[in-house]
Amino acid sequence: MQLLDAKIAMIDAVWFTHDHADHTHGIDDLRVFSARRGHVRAFAGAATAASLRHKFAYIFDPAYRPPEGTTKPEIQLSDIDEDDGVRAAGLHIMPLRVPHGDTVSHGFRTGDLGYITDAKELPSDVVDRLRGVRVLVLNALWFGNPHPTHFNVEEALAAAAAVGAERTYLTHLTHRLLHSDLLARLPRGVEPAFDGLTIEI
């Protein structure tokens, strides 16, 4: 629905940050995009990629043939190269490993953009790799009440300050937060993201 609202007619590539259902279970909706160009390129960390191939065997098992009159998403899934990153859509994308409870989430940096969602902290090496980005996207759930797997707003603000981007957008927000309240309370240079937000870098 978000893609329809934004009038997105083509996807160049998909980045799976981690294996949780809210980040992977829309995979079947890639079917329409693969039909338009033959396949969709996708990238994931090795553990996430292995899980996707297992959970969605009907997509990734080359021996599986959908019943006549039906189709399946055609997805070219590649493991993320942790050392050299990947090239997709004309961009060089460097993966950034961040802790997310008992698992790992892969954010990324490409040029002046840093994207981190579902993180509890930014390890020092990730902060170093993010230095110099102009735009940073970070997850944050709510004010106070620390969560075991995600930043709260205060933790996200501390991480944003460590990176020092010109602009930071908070995402993965819960319904406990009002957009207007965040606009009033967040420091200069930090804003809440919203559905349909477009950022030009």
| Rg (CA only) | 18 Å
- What is the helix fraction of residues, given as a range? 25-40%
Record the strand order, biggest sheet: 4-5-6-7-8-9-10
Counting DSSP H or I runs of 4 or more residues, the number of helices is: 8
Structural class: alpha/beta
The oligomerization state is single chain
Elements, N to C (H/E): HEHHEHHEEEEEHEHEHE
Please mark out the parts with pLDDT under 50 across 5 or more consecutive residues, or reply none: none
Question: How far apart lie the N and C ends?
Answer: 25 Å
Secondary structure tally: strands: 10
Strand content: 25-35%
Q: How is the biggest beta sheet arranged?
A: 7 strands, mixed
- Mean pLDDT comes to 94
**Anisotropy-based shape:** globular
